[in-house]
Structure formats: structure tokens, C-alpha cells
Design a protein that fits this description.
By secondary structure, the protein is mainly alpha-helical. The chain folds into two domains: 18-239 and 345-375, HUPs (Rossmann fold, 3-Layer(aba) Sandwich), CATH 3.40.50.620; 250-343, Tyrosyl-Transfer RNA Synthetase, CATH 1.10.240. The protein contains 14 helices and five strands. The chain has helices at 31-46, 65-81, 104-118, 134-138, 140-144, 149-153, 156-164, 172-186, 200-217, 262-270, 288-301, 305-312, 316-343, 346-374; strands at residues 52-57, 84-89, 125-129, 192-194, 231-233. The longest helix is centred in the last third of the chain and has 29 residues, at 346-374. The structure holds adenosine-5'-triphosphate and magnesium ion. Adenosine-5'-triphosphate (ATP) binds at residues 57-58, 60, 66-67, 70-71, 195-196, 198-199, 238-240, 247-252.
């Protein structure tokens, strides 16, 4: 990764339900994390066959531009480089921050349409829903034994999500879903997770769980480690902000969906938070709202954000918003057209998911067998 073009996230306040104060989420990957992503890029280009990718999304709404620039583009790029890929539609995890998973089937289908529209190819990437893979979910039990309650409680992404949750009480699933995510990643022994910045603490936990499992259950003489310690791969936009200046999120009413119409996109961008200064600049730390829009235009146009800001100059927020709207709509037009075509054939969507679930089940059963053998829990 050469340049990191980031907009800063606004700190969030904790509600009464949060047991401890929510810290401001990290604003950017650390220097070490950026260096590691750059190293990984080189390794992937040299030997794509050494890698296996797991990524995924919660079916809580339509995928948005934060997904696109934070992880989706990387997923397709890696798939096209020949890296074997798994994509989980994380349906059980919808319930981390709400009582009922509303319109679940519709959101699952919507995610699948978004994947196909951006270029996920089901013959090369296995798309599955984790509620359909019992063997994957069973990994959660030994994994939970490998982490302490204190470790689960201090995860900054979980704290941020609690701060934004509308639930009166925090569920156990909220604290344990990062361990569940370790099962999502490790069931297929993925060693690479192209994801946004909010996933960094979860990846750290997955690495801890993999290491502790290997140490505890498969470290004797001649034993080979059961699990890899996966790396996170950041894009150049690992934290895109939404129209309210906070992390763009499906569930926070601040996102621009890939599937939005051109008019809806224009309306959302028109309502985005900016500031009173007329001259447009790219300064994520001091002008997060304006800089986030500049960044969005730059990403869509594949240009440098400073240059984009320079070109708008004294045009003010309205010129900036016009440019962003045009750039986003132009960039998304072919994706939106493909999505509409795929939506015509719902039987194919169901088949893709069924076949993905079958492939993922076979992989999960093999891994679970290995886990049970390592734990001495195979009796016949
Ligand atoms: P929700 O509000 O329901 O949690 P979300 O928008 O946060 O939805 P997720 O399904 O939780 O989306 O995240 C899916 C993937 O997209 C993760 O890899 C996450 O890091 C990435 N991602 C989500 N939002 C952003 C963003 N604003 N910028 C960059 N990457 C993002
Ligand atoms: Mg999220």
C-alpha cells in the first residue's frame, strides 16, 4: 500500500447500556499494519496459491460504498488473481445488536446480488450462510474456551457497536461474536482476510485463538498446527465515513448503497455533513466531512484526493457534492445494471447459495473432524 487515503471517524459516546466507556475507534491502520499489507500484496502476487481468503458481511441491509472500497474490490481482485475465496453471509451475527433479524431472506438475497454485480464469481468463490453450516458453528465451543471474559470485553469494535446498538441490554452474542468470526475464518483455514479497519481487533482475536488452539491441542513432537494465523489485508480506504461523519454502516442510516438509484444517491450526498469553509481541502483530521466526500470522489475517479480538492478550490460544498454525485453514479452505473439483470433470475440465486453451502459444509466437516481428533474427542 503506497498511500493511505483516509477520512477520520468521529468519536462516539457510550449509552447507559455500555458497561465501560467506548473509546474512539482507531482512525487508521498502524504503520506496522500498513507495512504488513504492503508485504502481503507482494507475496500474493508472487504466489496466489499460498493464500486462502475468507471475508463476509452481515445481512443487515444493502452493501455500500464503504464495503466496496474497503473490502469488496479487494475480494474480486484476489479472486481474479487465483486466490481461493470463501464469502460468508453472516446471518447469525445479525442478532448481535438487535432482537429480531428483520427481512433476513431479502437481505441475504440482496447481498448475493451485490456480490454477483461487483464480480464475485460463484465458480471461484464459495458464498455461504453460516446458519446452514452446523460444523462451522460447532467450532465456537472449543474456541470460547481459549479466550478470557476480559479479552472479549475489551474489544474496541464491540464497544463501538454497543454504543450504536438500539438494544436496551447487551446480549452475550455481542461479546462472543468475534470468537464466532474466528470460526468463520478458521473453518476453511483462511490465512488472509481483506477487511475494513473495524475488523482489526477481531483478526487479532482469531490469531490468538488459532495460536492457543495449536499450542494446547497440537504441539507435541511431530504434531502439525491445525490452524494458520490469518492476516488482515487493508485496502487504501479501510474506513470510509458515512453521510453523518461516522463510520459508513448498513445499520446506521448513513450509507450510500451500491444498489441505490442515481436520484437516491444525489439526495444522500446532498444531505452529507460538511463545514462552513468555502475552500475545499483534503484534511481528514480537521475536516472529516469535507475530506470524506473528497475521498469518495477520488476513489471513484481513481485520482489523488489532494488533487481533487485542488480542482474544486473555492467552489464550496455544492460544487464538491455535484462532483461526488457524478463520480459515484458513473462508477456504480455498470454495477447497478448487472445487479438488475441478476435479480431477474432468482432460481439461479438459490442454486448458487445451495451449492456454496454444500461446499462450505464439506470443508467445515473436515476441519471439525481434525479439531475433534486434536482434542481427543473422536470415540469411534
Ligand atoms: P452493520 O452496520 O450491519 O454492522 P456494516 O456496514 O458495518 O454493517 P459489516 O457487514 O459489519 O458492514 O462489514 C462487512 C465488511 O465491510 C467488513 O470487512 C468491514 O470491515 C467492511 N466495512 C464495513 N463498513 C466499512 C467502512 N465504512 N469502510 C471500510 N470498510 C467497511
Ligand atoms: Mg459492522
Amino acid at each position: 500500500m503506497t498511500t493511505t487515503v483516509l477520512a477520520a471517524a468521529a468519536p462516539t459516546a457510550a449509552p447507559a447500556a455500555a458497561p465501560t466507556l467506548a473509546p474512539a475507534p482507531a482512525l487508521a491502520p498502524s504503520a506496522a499494519e500498513q507495512l504488513r499489507s504492503a508485504e502481503l500484496e507482494q507475496l500474493i502476487h508472487r504466489q496466489p496459491g499460498r493464500f486462502r481468503v475468507l471475508t463476509g458481511d452481515r445481512p443487515t441491509g444493502r452493501l455500500h460504498l464503504g464495503h466496496y472500497f474497503g473490502t469488496l474490490q479487494n475480494r474480486v481482485r484476489l479472486q481474479d488473481l487465483g486466490v481461493e475465496s470463501f464469502v460468508v453471509i453472516a446471518d447469525y451475527q445479525v442478532l448481535t445488536d438487535r432482537d429480531v433479524a428483520d427481512r433476513l431472506a431479502e437481505h441475504v438475497e440482496g447481498l448475493l446480488l451485490d456480490y454477483l454485480a461487483i464480480g464475485i464469481d460463484p465458480s471461484r468463490s464459495t458464498v455461504f450462510t453460516h446458519s446452514a453450516i452446523p460444523a462451522l458453528n460447532q467450532l465456537l465451543l472449543p474456541f470460547l474456551s481459549l479466550v478470557s471474559v476480559a479479552e472479549l470485553g475489551r474489544n474496541p469494535t464491540v464497544k463501538d457497536e454497543i454504543a450504536h446498538s438500539k438494544q436496551a441490554a447487551v446480549s452475550g452474542l455481542m461479546y462472543t461474536y468475534p470468537a464466532h468470526q474466528a470460526a468463520d475464518i478458521l473453518f476453511c483455514k483462511a490465512n488472509l482476510v481483506p477487511a475494513g479497519l473495524d475488523q482489526a481487533p477481531h483478526l487479532e482475536l482469531t490469531r490468538t485463538i488459532a495460536r492457543r488452539f495449536n499450542d494446547r491441542f497440537s504441539s507435541g513432537p511431530g504434531a502439525t498446527p491445525v490452524f494458520p494465523e490469518p492476516d488482515i489485508l487493508f485496502s487504501t480506504a479501510p474506513l470510509l465515513l458515512g453521510t453523518d461523519g461516522g463510520k459508513m454502516s448498513k445499520s446506521r442510516g448513513n450509507s450510500i448503497a451500491l444498489a441505490a438509484t442515481a436520484e437516491e444517491t444525489a439526495r444522500l450526498i446532498k444531505g452529507a455533513t460538511t463545514d462552513a469553509e468555502r475552500r475545499i481541502s483534503y484534511d481528514p483530521e480537521h475536516r472529516p466531512g469535507v475530506s470524506s466526500l473528497v475521498l469518495l470522489a477520488a476513489l471513484c475517479l481513481e485520482a489523488d484526493p489532494h488533487q481533487v480538492a485542488e480542482e474544486i478550490g473555492n467552489g464550496g460544498a455544492s460544487a464538491l457534492k455535484r462532483l461526488v454525485t457524478e463520480a459515484v453514479n458513473e462508477r456504480l452505473a455498470p454495477i447497478r445494471a448487472r445487479r438488475a439483470e441478476y435479480a431477474e433470475d432468482r432460481a439461479s440465486l438459490r442454486r448458487i447459495l445451495r451449492e456454496g453451502n454444500e461446499r462450505a459444509t464439506a470443508v467445515a466437516e473436515t476441519t471439525l473432524r481434525e479439531v475433534r481428533e486434536a482434542m481427543g474427542a473422536v470415540y469411534y
